Amino acid sequence: MEGLKLITAIKSKTIINVGEAAIGGDEIAIMAGPCAVESREQLFTTAFALKELGVKILRGGAYKPRTSPYSFSGLGEAGLELLQEVSRATGMAIITEVMDPNEVGVVAEYADILQIGSRNMQNFPLLQAVGKLNKPVVLKRGLAATIAEWLFAAEYILAGGNGQVILCERGIRTFETYTRNTVDLSAVPIVKSLTNLPVIVDPSHATGLKELVAPVSKGAVAMGADGLLIEVHSQPEEALCDGEQSLTPAEFAKLKAELSPICLAVGRKL
Amino acid sequence: MEGLKLITAIKSKTIINVGEAAIGGDEIAIMAGPCAVESREQLFTTAFALKELGVKILRGGAYKPRTSPYSFSGLGEAGLELLQEVSRATGMAIITEVMDPNEVGVVAEYADILQIGSRNMQNFPLLQAVGKLNKPVVLKRGLAATIAEWLFAAEYILAGGNGQVILCERGIRTFETYTRNTVDLSAVPIVKSLTNLPVIVDPSHATGLKELVAPVSKGAVAMGADGLLIEVHSQPEEALCDGEQSLTPAEFAKLKAELSPICLAVGRKL
Amino acid sequence: MEGLKLITAIKSKTIINVGEAAIGGDEIAIMAGPCAVESREQLFTTAFALKELGVKILRGGAYKPRTSPYSFSGLGEAGLELLQEVSRATGMAIITEVMDPNEVGVVAEYADILQIGSRNMQNFPLLQAVGKLNKPVVLKRGLAATIAEWLFAAEYILAGGNGQVILCERGIRTFETYTRNTVDLSAVPIVKSLTNLPVIVDPSHATGLKELVAPVSKGAVAMGADGLLIEVHSQPEEALCDGEQSLTPAEFAKLKAELSPICLAVGRKL
Amino acid sequence: MEGLKLITAIKSKTIINVGEAAIGGDEIAIMAGPCAVESREQLFTTAFALKELGVKILRGGAYKPRTSPYSFSGLGEAGLELLQEVSRATGMAIITEVMDPNEVGVVAEYADILQIGSRNMQNFPLLQAVGKLNKPVVLKRGLAATIAEWLFAAEYILAGGNGQVILCERGIRTFETYTRNTVDLSAVPIVKSLTNLPVIVDPSHATGLKELVAPVSKGAVAMGADGLLIEVHSQPEEALCDGEQSLTPAEFAKLKAELSPICLAVGRKL
Question: In terms of CA atoms, which chain D residue is nearest residue C222?
């Protein structure tokens, strides 16, 4: 990959510890939760259900990037406070998205892992801002980003001094319309061979269809992914966004049971 | 999938028996061999090595679709004769590509399974010709074909009376240039849910890179694929086409060993 | 373009004469007519209206490639006979599609120009069959074909001895869903710079929307296209296929009037 | 376009006045200049040459979004100062890119038009920041953005109270590799029909090849574009970025001469 310097390609394996989880080690890291933090009740119900099911990292958006300015765009700092509260109550670590360089500070106060969404993969001021943190960052691949561009984006964070980058494949844009995006699972072994960074997959956004979350999760783990980012909502039919791709806690439990033998088959734990 | 009649969607599972193999049953069907039949020695060396490794279906092209009219385009009927000869010597079943409605008859005489390549997925006279056979047909997805169009192409064969259709995902065209194509593994569970037909994956053509054949094979099986179509050549560095994506028999043996636990994990055999 | 031999790149300009038209000369060649030959009345009404408007080449499909085996697929040889009949009555030359190497002979008997559709751009036996003719061939670009692959496909025809190839850009597949396809008009000057062949554009199939036929036609001519392939139907709302992209003869007359100043601006005639 | 409110679709035509230019009126607006402000000499030489050729709006980047953190990323505020200085010397208006919500204020102090680049089309905090300005904004289409998403992004700016939005088509990502991107010229008439906003085209970034700048410019104007954004550099072979797509002032003069008759043909002036 011409022009890519070696910061992303250091050969010692990166393992990122956060709360009770370690990302990039033997255990497959599961980050699960609702697309958006909607209310105290929704968040706590979902979080406790996931805690029961062994999930160590809770996802939930307080700042939501939305195509339309008229869509629900998250609770903002009030959402961050709810996330912190549920984290204290459950002991789960929190991952949440940051969209604005000006909000990196406040998000970093509340969250354990910051997420850079696909639309912001080449938001260079934002990458530079999280590059100054000493906190893990999940960097999602852009919808039309080549693997080379994705790694260069990671390099912005690493060059800033923050080596705790987790790459996340979440589907690319193609002509296929059956799924929301086309998940490029071959990116997982490619990125694993080119870098020392953990790689996770987001089957919920990659497909947009809840019935594909389980098979894509299995494929991802079989191909070497270090973790999964999965949308789970206590009442998907009432979700303010992305309900059609959210699992219920019961469906998530079923997925975990199905995934377990694949993890064992590739020498990993769940 | 609007307008798709129900021939492809009959709910009883299709199992296709060919030689010692059954495609669509518990066992993952492996079709392996060189991209092209190049010579008696190359074919026999490769075939016997694969036979030793338990492969029941041998692939090899006698008629090769080539982008340039100046590239090697296969040995034609002489290649078919070699395939038949090696089939008799090894007991392996033969899969080979047919490109011309006029050659369907002769190919069907020599081969056990006919392959329709991605460039011909919507070659309707060819689909109609193989629809009149009583032989299995592997139908590869076109490089820019939606899943709906692929199933409609299958329906051309089924509507002709030939129910032995095996669908093969082999990568679609996207902006990504690291791999030759982008393998759409989510198509596997989608097609399994919409039809009763076996689905296989061709990791060699989908990626164009030999180091990705093993991880894509694992992902495919984990996601429900019924088989794999893999390029193996006794001397990839001397192959007349696609050498850079061909495994040696030794590499194929390694792949099989790695694949075996995944098969078990999803309740399949290898 | 590595590996591309020079048959397509001969520097003397190719002008193809057919009936009263010359394709590749100063005059912009217009090929217009219905998607499919549906009936004697439909064809004659449309053809006479177009003849009145100065059109010299009539398009109309007798063999229609259709995604679904259950869609109307053309009148076959009866359609060819109607085309020949209307040609005699109007003096217009005929362009029609051929899909099967076995039908090249019969289509060549009736038609003045044979069309290879986008799905068949890499149907090599078909390309070889028309390569043996001494008749003009319109070669449409495949939906996912690179420019290099398109020129190699032309080379199959040229290598067979038939130098009368007309290249036709008709849209490629992208993620955009507003239009049926994305017309790649930059392909026009690229192909003009790499080959000596005439290049035309099909705005009807490229966009799938009748309101875009006029602007795309203007852009094509401004960028150096030698002709246009346009769907016109006497009663689009009753067309058996592609009615939503067909112009009425009155709309076509309006397009011609708008196009005329653009032709003059680039030193061409209409 | 479901869910799109009507702010972008107000039917009275928007004409945006800036310096001596009016964008969206009869005259085709030309914005030309170097990719990046590199030095006082480079900027002044290019600007005066363009001024001589009748250009009223000068482009030049002070903040450059670059794939790699190790590439030249612009002179920053020093570049803005040079742009202001050359503006005072020549009377030309200035367009320059802004990437960071924190820099909107400073860029707006120096520039007449702010540009949002394709990577930032869905950088919502940035869109909201420029939405509060009373200055024109050029909004480039994202590399994988649908037309609907592009218009929703415009709506973010309009909803903030800034109605001076100019849409810019600059190529989308496809599988074609001959050009850097595939310019979607059909987007021009589509967007003109859906909104009241001026639309311009960037042929330099859309193709990445200087020899395609003239034909794409002609096509754009023929299809209704209100302006062009063109890279011109006094010495392209020494440019710090994008030299291979930059015209010299002499080549730009030739383009203008060729473009003039097309403008007249569509009732516009140059």
Answer: D219
